[in-house]
Amino acid sequence: HYKNTASFSVFTHDQKSSFLVDPKTDFVTYFPHNIRWKPFSNIWYFFKNIWLILHSDILIIGGGGIIFDNEKGVSFSSLLTQWFLRTKIARLNGTTIVYLGISLEVKKVKNKMQLKKIFQKWDFIIVRDEQSASLLDALQIPSSQIPDIAFLYQPEKKKILPGKKRVGISVRWWFLAEADEMWIGSMYEYLEGEWYDPVFLLHTTSGDDAQNDSIFLKRIMTGKTYHTTGTIEGTLKVYPTLYAVIGMRFHSLVLASAHSIPFLSISYGPKTKELLTLMDVPKEAQISTDHFDLESFKTHWKYLIDNYSSRQIQIQKKHTEIRNDLILKLQTL
Asked: What would the pLDDT profile of 245-256 be if each residue is shown by its tens digit?
């Protein structure tokens, strides 16, 4: 639409976790960011954020979970204040606000009511799940729904390597009970014993172990030898070489789907459950966080191996269907 006149500023906590490479794109650190350890840097972040938002024609927010109250160590009121500040600055300048493919994981009624501070009826709001659409509808805020925008991802051709079959594992903190976290290491060692080549797929490398996959793995794999992809760039390069995926992170399942890789999901909440329903994933390929142990994993793994070819065909077919639907909805919107 803008031809060659458009320029983009991307706010991020972790530039290494972005795979966007564009000379017209400027990466900017969010305010706040490590404010306890970098107080003076945050003064610069604060004024840079304000200046950029004030001088933008459009503020695009998303995709993914932008505000939630279901994760330990994350303050809902802090998230709300941050988004209120950003959107308030945009509204003062008449900047168009677009919420693109967002999700809202808000459980407490008092928190749901406060969402009106950051969403208004004239905003252009696109959510990625029914739960978020219903929540906004209850607040009388209109929205449209599309599948997650990561379904647009264009993968590289598969590069299955000779030797051991490589299995990607994506995990995250908080949604497993502390006693169950030990089974991740046992699962990794079991796959090694069965002559597979497991590798942990890192999706974010910033923040504490609630967000940082690398720190979380160091804690739960203490004393064990293991391999990781290092960065999101490394993760994307590994995907075409994978035989199977064991995915807990939402986008690990979307990326497995994009590469037509059979997977087992470790479903931890409404967000992933709705994704699995959209993708028609059978129960046998879903590992519940309520029954997460090595024996349960072995049962699900046997199902994946026994039904590998049929699952691969079904995943490819369903991904094409979802992607085409997403493109059509975006064009319509």
From this structure: 999 999 999 999
